């Protein structure tokens, strides 16, 4: 289910955590698309003593440093430079880990609204990434973070959310495309990226970016078909990212179609990532 597309990992066995499978099945049972919650920010560990001194962290506090916040549920509540010291009341170590036993107690509390007694009093040795707790959250469930900001302790309440990436899997059996003057434009999907080498948009930047608008979608030039309209055009390599049509920023493939069909100029200007332009004569 998870590793079936790994072409370089044949004859290798993998263990999928039962929590992940249960989460997946519960989403399906409730009629929801299977989704796992996202942090909404990037972070780095604070194990380095010099870094901790630079951040002026009190000796009693441990935690992780927020380095970037994505648009979405965390924006305006979490800021770069914040140090997250607790998640749902669980202490986060400077390496980003939490006690596995205590996290299991917390999960049972979510389920039964009471703490189980099976791990109290035991020596807590096994640790897992604090992100493990997010695999147990469903979209919309509450999440609390305790942070240090300017050496002041604050409690932040959030809602667990799924981050919509600009590049998403294309599960639709019908693939969209638009051809004008032999230029073939398609939405950027994981399948499209995997089919191309040396593609401009493969960089991690585009995988990390999120949809600021619900319908935002990356569009790229897939190929150039033989046509009189493009016989003397430069030949940019496949995978060039389309940014603008007639100096208007492109929102999605449907928007590209609308801009071309409503064009009243003698020319259509396509602008790509890197500043390259292609001009077609429209009439």
Q: Which bin fits the share of residues in helices?
A: 10-25%
Helix tally? 7
Largest sheet: 7 strands, antiparallel
| Low-pLDDT sequence parts | 114-124
Query: Looking at the chains present, what oligomeric state does this protein adopt?
Result: single chain
How many strand elements?
Answer: 15
- State which percent range the strand residues make up: 25-35%
Amino-to-carboxy terminus distance: 51 Å
Mean pLDDT: 76
Q: Quick one: overall form?
A: elongated
What is the chain-wise order of helices and strands?
HEHEEEEHEHEEEEHHEEEHEE
Structural class: alpha+beta
Radius of gyration: 24 Å
Blueprint of the fold:
Elements lengths: L17 H12 L11 E5 L3 H6 L9 E6 L13 E5 L2 E2 L5 E3 H13 L14 E3 L2 H4 L6 E8 L2 E8 L18 E3 L2 E5 L2 H5 L9 H5 L10 E6 L15 E6 L2 E2 L3 H9 L5 E6 L4 E5 L2
Antiparallel strand pairs: 1-2, 2-3, 3-4, 3-7, 5-6, 7-8, 9-10, 10-11, 11-12, 12-13, 12-14, 14-15
Key features of this structure:
alpha+beta; six-stranded antiparallel beta sheet; 7 helices
Description:
The protein is of the alpha+beta class. Helices cover 19% and strands 26% of the residues. It is built from seven helices and 15 strands. A hairpin with a 4-residue loop joins strand 14 and strand 15 (277-281). It is elongated, with a radius of gyration of 24 Å.
């Amino acid at each position: 289910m998870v590793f079936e597309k790994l072409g370089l990992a044949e004859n290798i066995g993998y263990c999928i955590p039962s929590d992940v499978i249960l989460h997946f099945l519960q989403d399906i049972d409730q009629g929801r698309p299977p989704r796992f919650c996202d942090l909404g920010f990037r972070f780095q560990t604070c194990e380095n003593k010099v870094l901790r001194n630079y951040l002026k962290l009190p000796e009693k506090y441990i935690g992780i440093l927020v380095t970037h916040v994505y648009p979405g549920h965390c924006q305006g509540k979490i800021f770069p430079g914040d140090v997250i010291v607790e998640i749902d009341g669980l202490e986060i170590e400077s390496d980003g880990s939490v006690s596995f036993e205590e996290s299991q107690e917390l999960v049972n509390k979510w389920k039964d609204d009471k703490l189980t007694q099976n791990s109290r009093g035991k020596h807590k040795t096994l640790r897992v990434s604090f992100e493990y707790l997010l695999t147990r959250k469903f979209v919309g469930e509450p999440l609390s973070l305790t942070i240090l900001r300017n050496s002041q302790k604050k409690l932040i309440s959030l809602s667990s959310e799924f981050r919509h990436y600009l590049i998403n899997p294309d599960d639709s059996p019908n693939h969209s495309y638009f051809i004008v003057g032999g230029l073939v434009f398609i939405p950027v999907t994981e399948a499209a990226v995997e089919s191309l080498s040396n593609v401009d948009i493969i960089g991690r930047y585009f995988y990390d970016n999120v949809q600021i608008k619900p319908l935002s979608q990356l569009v790229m030039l897939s190929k150039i078909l033989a046509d009189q309209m493009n016989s003397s055009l430069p030949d940019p390599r496949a995978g060039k990212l389309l940014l603008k049509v007639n100096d208007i920023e492109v929102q999605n493939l449907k928007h590209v179609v609308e801009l071309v069909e409503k064009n009243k100029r003698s020319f259509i200007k396509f602008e790509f990532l890197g500043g390259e332009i292609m001009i077609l004569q429209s009439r």
